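Please decode residue identities from the backbone states below.
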């Protein structure tokens, strides 16, 4: 018996009804992957029906409504799976059917917020607000609107305040930062390949950029040397996450494709800074067909950063903590042993600020490893990064380290010679070798451990104080060379706490603090952090 057209329609309707119920159930049970599959099936059936019933406007309207809702729900499920690109496509398709569809606009706004496209998200939430349905959910909608406005303002101005989180000992949930790009551009670097450059004068503490990770992986490694296996597992998870992010989003893939894989770095194209602004849709022009897994792995080798758990350094907590991540724009920042910027990790965000005053045109650099260490040690650390440092301090010290006197000071320290005597010898040497003021900072930073001990109250009391330069000028020259550092700051604060210093010294310590933590920590919070609140 031949089925009539009507019978076929009824059967299709029944099948769609069943699929819709199943998909809704899966969505309610948070089974996102299965929900996407069920909705995909439903959507293709629905689209099929739309193409078959062009004459019945009532039925067509009903089908379009079902299609719109299914696309919206699939977008929700996809966004939960962090497949934002496909989720956005679903939203746009649904909005083509019904341009003010409440649920879709809300979903699209949340996805855009997640992608740091604040002004577009704001537009979505504003349109949602006009819908009469919005009254019922005004509390959460208002929350999104306020959050979006705040983030949009932050991303334009870089006005962050992390004071509360810092004062609470880096505990609790920090304020969510917005992505931000300050006065910088990417150019060819004299150090190697491309680098990030200041387009204006930037003073110490000012934000340079805030950027969200493509992916991160974190864990506690009780003993980093012994637990190589755990590190390998983390690295594997991390690379999988990066590959997955690239597979899900062509923009992410394109951006990863701009990064160096370590080969022919000086020949690489110099991308426009605007490409890295989250609101810019497509970048194109990069040979991404070459972005296979092997290339991604090489890119990760060159560009992944280990998270600096500031709380572990400052508060002595979480010292077992290990985190690795890829932050695309920050990957253009070269290393220098005379860095002028520092990084701070807040959640998945990397915040870079100037650690000393930077002049327009100067390259922004941060330290990939501890630069308050001597040349040999820095060379070793550089090796693990797979390059030979081409910064001006290394060049200067390489020439100087051929001198026997420097070697003797080093050997003396290894033998346990008094740190005050070593610093005295270094200062005498620098006078004889007519080392310029700026370069004195380089060498003092190289002999930081000795300087630090030499300026301890006990050593000073034993008479070294009169024979070596005043601590303030040594600190100034080190900070001028390598920017602020928490150990230098600590030395200054200890001096202040001993009562040797007034308002001027306090201002100096606060300026150093700004260089270490950035202006994201406001003055009062900085005083509390430095333990100077009572002064
Ligand atoms: C994260 S990338 C920095 C950006 C890179 N220059 C580019 O063009 O994409 C790290 C790579 O930059 C180069 N590099 C960074 N700092 C350097 C330095 N101080 N000396 C020599 N090469 C450096 C090395 O090749 C390193 O593997």
């Amino acid at each position: 018996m031949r089925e009539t057209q009507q019978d076929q329609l009824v059967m299709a309707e029944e099948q769609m009804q069943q699929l819709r119920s199943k998909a809704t159930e899966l969505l309610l049970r948070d089974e996102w992957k299965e929900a996407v599959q069920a909705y995909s099936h439903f959507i293709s059936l629905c689209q099929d029906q739309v193409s078959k019933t062009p004459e019945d406007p009532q039925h067509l309207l009903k089908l379009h409504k079902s299609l719109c809702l299914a696309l919206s729900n699939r977008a929700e499920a996809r966004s939960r799976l962090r497949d934002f690109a496909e989720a956005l496509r679903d939203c746009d398709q649904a909005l083509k059917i019904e341009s003010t569809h409440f649920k879709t606009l809300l979903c699209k706004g949340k996805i855009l917020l997640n992608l740091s496209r604040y002004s577009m998200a704001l537009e979505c939430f504003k349109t949602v607000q006009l819908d009469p349905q919005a009254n019922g959910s005004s509390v959460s909608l208002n929350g999104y609107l306020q959050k979006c406005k705040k983030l949009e303002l932050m991303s334009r101005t870089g006005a962050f305040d992390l004071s509360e989180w810092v004062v609470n000992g880096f505990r609790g949930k920090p304020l969510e930062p917005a992505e931000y790009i300050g006065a910088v551009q990417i150019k060819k670097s004299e150090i190697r390949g491309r680098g990030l450059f200041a387009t204006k004068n930037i003073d110490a503490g000012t934000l340079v950029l805030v950027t969200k990770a493509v992916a991160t992986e974190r864990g506690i490694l009780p003993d980093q040397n012994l637990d190589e296996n755990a590190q390998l597992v983390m690295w594997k998870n991390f690379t999988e996450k990066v590959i997955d992010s690239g597979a899900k989003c062509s923009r992410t893939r394109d951006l990863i494709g701009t990064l160096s894989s370590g080969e022919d770095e000086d020949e690489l194209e110099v991308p426009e800074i605007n490409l890295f602004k989250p609101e810019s849709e497509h970048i194109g022009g990069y040979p991404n067909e070459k972005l296979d897994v092997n290339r991604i792995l090489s890119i990760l080798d060159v560009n992944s950063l280990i998270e600096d758990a500031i709380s572990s350094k400052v508060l002595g907590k979480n010292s077992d903590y290990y985190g690795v991540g890829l932050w695309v724009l920050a990957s253009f920042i070269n290393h220098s042993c005379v860095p002028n910027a520092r990084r701070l990790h807040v959640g998945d965000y990397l915040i870079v600020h100037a650690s000393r005053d930077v002049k327009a045109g100067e390259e922004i650099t941060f330290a990939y490893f501890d630069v308050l260490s001597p040349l040999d040690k820095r060379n070793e650390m550089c090796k693990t990064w797979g390059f030979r440092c081409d910064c001006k301090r290394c060049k200067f010290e390489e020439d100087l380290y051929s001198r026997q006197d420097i070697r003797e000071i080093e050997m003396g320290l290894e033998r346990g010679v008094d740190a005050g005597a070593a610093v005295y010898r270094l200062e005498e040497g620098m006078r004889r070798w007519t080392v310029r003021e700026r370069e004195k900072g380089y060498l003092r930073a190289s002999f930081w451990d000795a300087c630090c001990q030499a300026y301890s109250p006990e050593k000073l009391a034993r008479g070294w104080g009169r024979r070596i330069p005043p601590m303030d000028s040594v600190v100034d020259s080190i900070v001028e060379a390598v920017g602020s550092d928490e150990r230098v700051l600590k030395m200054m604060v200890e001096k202040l706490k001993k009562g040797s210093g007034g308002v001027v010294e306090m201002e100096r310590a606060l300026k150093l603090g700004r260089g270490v933590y950035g202006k994201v920590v406001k003055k009062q919070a900085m005083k509390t952090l430095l333990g100077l609140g009572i002064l």
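Observation: The chain has three domains: 5-157, 163-366, 375-484.
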